[in-house]
Amino acid sequence: MKMRIALTLSTLLAAGPLAAQEVLNVYNWSDYIAEDTIEKFEAETGIQVNYDVYDSNEVLEAKMLAGNSGYDVVVPTSDFLQRQIAAGAYQPLDKSKLPNLENMDPQLMERAAAYDAGNEHAVIYMWGTTGIGYNAGMVEERLGADAPTDSWALVFDPEVAARLSDCGITVLNAPTEVIPAAMAYAGLDPTSTDPADLEKGAEVVEGVREYIRYFHSSQYITDLANGDVCVSVGWSGDVFQAQARAVEAENGVDIAYTIPSEGALVWFDMMAIPVDAPNPDAAHRFINFVMDPQITADITNYVWYANANAASMELVDEEITSDPGIFPTAEVREKLWTAPVYDSRTDRVVTRLWTRVATGQ
Amino acid sequence: MSHVAGSPRMSWRRWLVVAIPMLWLGVFFLLPFIEVARISLADPALARPPYTAIWADGRFTGDLENFLFLLSDSLYVNAYLSSIRFAFVSTVLALLIGYPMAYAIARAREPWRTVLLFLVILPFWTSFLLRVYALVGLMNPTGPINQLLLWLGLIGEPLVMRQTDFAVYVGIVYTYLPFMILPLYAVLSKLDDALLEASADLGAHPAVTFLTVTLPLSLPGVVAGAMLVFIPSIGEFVIPALLGGPDTLMIGQVLWNEFFSARDWTVASAVAVAMLLLIVLPILWLQKMMEPAR
After folding, report:
1. How far does B256 lie from chain A, in Å, by closest CA?
2. Inter-chain CB proximity B75 and A65 less than 8 Å
3. Name one GO molecular function term (chain A) (predicted).
4. What confidence tens digit (pLDDT) does each residue in B70-87 have?
5. If you write DSSP's letter for every residue of A283-339 in order, what string do you get?
6. Confidence of residue B7 (pLDDT cuts 50, 70, 90)
7. Region of residue A34 (left: phi > 0; alpha: psi -120 to 50; beta: else)
8. What CATH number did the domain enclosing B239 receive?
9. pLDDT class of A6 with cuts at 50, 70, 90
10. Residue B28, in any domain of the structure
């Protein structure tokens, strides 16, 4: 602690005369970067980084739409990105400043171009799926060896959920991801924007609501790892982080991640530069830096999310590249869907349904 | 004081004394409120910021549509009533717990009095958010409270305390208790011992003395404490978000959903304006209830 205070003091003192120190403000998801990425960037460029985190697209979006956020690099998810581009929140990338773009996987970038025509505004940071994380031991104890761990039934079938409720089911507080998953379970097209379909999806969630402990988008990482809950609708890498924490803690908790057979949402988190970024030049340098194969491989090795950097693959741990939960097999990839962008009317329908689901009102 | 009120210097000072809080209110309350009221009259739009202007071509284009929308759906009224219930029950609990504590501190001898007061204020040295997270940890199924109860054999399996209305009450009462204790302490510590002695000398039972002397004299502290707990509790967002269950319905969360999930800043602003206006009602009622006793 003393050491840290001394360090802070010396940084403050050092910062004094160098008032013109270049600063970069990055706003990224929580638990979403390697421990040394920022350090390395600072060492290489001499730019000082302020690194802030959020745990929901909604919070980021409110800041982007309000404007003057002060951030230079932000990482919205693809469908949110598209709407924010339409609202004029981002500036086009200057690709001459991003030579590392050649490292990116052209196929994945093309899928992302569905949200950002020509990849004009954003580059894929990481990508993943929205599936189910579960405590293998606790689930088997309650449902036996033939538990439906490869299906959304694990959460959305009332009979199954009832037997799991005592060990704790949690669901992301992300209506645009959970209601479509419930629609997929009910055999509907998860990308439908028909209010009747969305209503059916909401009814599926309502059918198991009494067994759901909470709707939250980051708390479940710790709770899964500690064995405080046993089944979570969650984001792939977050579940793997819970798994890693449990292994580290040697608490006997065995966490697994499943992409249900009915399919799951695949999403891309995209690095973009707000239109009013104070330092777009440093922002380009940061984005280019992250696209360095070694840097992006380090991040994937740490956060257990897939990246879209073809050149980094050989540097990513075999344990990760061979995990079908992170890099799904071709067969599973067929069943993944990308989120449709809702218009404001559909947004209101989904939000209202979600409030009804969550609060019973 | 009144004999100098006419002098110009004094009135200038008086004016300053009034002007500073007015300026404060104007900058930190009135201006933001006008801004929110303005947004509540606009329509949502896909733009930055995400709503339309209420003045276009020199014409007023705002409307009350958002407020009518609040009435069209029972959610908003229910959330409002439910918030009042949470705030009211929490205030009563805080009063029942805080009054004896304030009384004991006021009656304590030095140096204990200073030490006890210090202990009431001490939690403020830690971030409010961290303290709520600490409650989350304490109430975990595998947390220390459950561990202790299991070990004592009082329960067979862990109690679900987190994500319940119970946890929200614990969170609100715990967080706002000092705001109840401090004004009560301020009043009780000034209580004239001679009055209590007189009451005892005249043969009143201590309980009678409390009800007829101490309690009425401390009512201003009760009202101040109740306001300080009740008002922030109604709009509380963090505590129900972290400790509440899926069905904990409070206006703060409804507002959050409108603002963030529906990205409808205009309805969110209408909720905020309506809540502010409606909050005045229970407070007037509370004040009226206390009035005859004053």
Report:
1. 10
2. no
3. polyamine binding
4. 998 888 999 999 999 999
5. HHHHHHHHTSHHHHHHHHHHH--B--BGGGGGGS-HHHHT-TTTS--HHHHTT-BPP
6. low
7. beta
8. 1.10.3720.10
9. very low
10. no
pLDDT at A20 (0 to 100): 66
Tell me the CATH number of domain A22-128+267-327, given options 2.60.40.10, 3.40.630.10, 3.40.190.10, 3.40.50.970. Answer: 3.40.190.10
User: Is the pLDDT at A7 greater than 80, yes or no?
Assistant: no
Question: Domain spans of chain A?
Answer: 22-128+267-327, 129-266+337-359
Provide ipTM, 2 decimals: 0.73
Q: Is residue B7 part of a domain?
A: no
How confident is the model at residue B9, as a pLDDT?
63
Cβ distance A359 to B248 less than 8 Å, yes or no, reads: yes
* pLDDT score at A8: 46
**B3, B7, B23, B25, B225 from B11: Cα distances, Å:** 12, 6, 18, 21, 32
Q: What single DSSP character describes residue A243?
A: H
Tell me if B261 and A228 make a contact (CB, 8 A cut-off): no
- Which residues of chain B does A275 touch, with a Cβ-Cβ cutoff of 8 Å? 48
Query: Could you tell me if residue B279 is inside a domain?
Result: no
Q: Which fold has domain A129-266+337-359?
A: D-Maltodextrin-Binding Protein; domain 2 (3.40.190)
Residue given tokens 């959610």 in the structure block: B75
CB contact A68 to B (< 8 Å): no
Residue B201 touches partner A, C-beta closer than 8 Å: no
Using an 8 Å CB-CB cutoff, list chain B residues near A62.
259-260, 263
Q: How many domains does chain B have?
A: 1
Give the pLDDT mean for B149-168. Answer: 89
Q: Answer yes or no: do B246 and A64 touch at CB < 8 A.
A: no
Measure in Å the smallest separation between the Cα of B217 and chain A Cα atoms: 43
Cα–Cα distance, A102 to B290 (Å, whole number)? 73
**Alpha-carbon A47 to chain mean position:** 27
Q: Does B52 touch chain A (CB under 8 A)?
A: no
Residue of A32, A44, A125 whose CA lies nearest to A77: A125
Would residue B10 count as lying in a domain?
A: no
**Contact criterion met (CB < 8 Å) for A65 and B50:** yes
B189 interfaces chain A, CB cutoff of 8 Å:
no
pLDDT of A10 over the 50 cut: no
Whether A67 and B50 lie within 8 Å, measured CB to CB: no
> In this structure, what DSSP letter does residue A277 have?
-
Chain B residue with Cα closest to A208: B246
Look at residue A123 and give its three-state secondary structure.
strand
